[in-house]
Amino acid sequence: MAYKVLGCIILESNQMPKNFRFVAFMLVTLTVTFACAISPAQAGKRQCADDYRRFCSQWGLETRGLENCMRRHGDYLSHRCIKGLIQVGAVSQAEVDRRRAQLGR
Domain total for the chain? Predict the structure, then answer.
């Protein structure tokens, strides 16, 4: 006779719950979903994908050249991108305010 351990309960194999496979499948699915979730830093930087393609696509991701390029074009970046960069700490709100004041915005 085969026995299976389910939590703290030992069951004979013919007593396994009918939905055990479904529960196991959902547990695996949730684990994979959380493991593949986008970090807040990645989400903030993804807000700049269009601006990256427009101004700085010649630079590799996570390079100093890209950072310098985005700063050079900072006055032309979308509001969405700037907000994302502030959220991840790539640029401070004070710097954004200072640059806006210089432009008279």
Answer: 2
Alpha helix stretches (DSSP H) within 15-103? 20-35, 40-46, 49-55, 64-72, 79-88, 93-103
Q: Are residues 45 and 86 in the same domain?
A: yes
The tens place of each residue's pLDDT in the chain, 105 residues long, gives 455 444 545 555 555 555 666 666 666 565 555 555 555 556 666 889 999 999 999 999 889 999 999 999 999 999 999 999 898 888 899 999 999 998 887
CA distance 105 to 4: 69
Is the pTM value of this prediction over 0.85? no
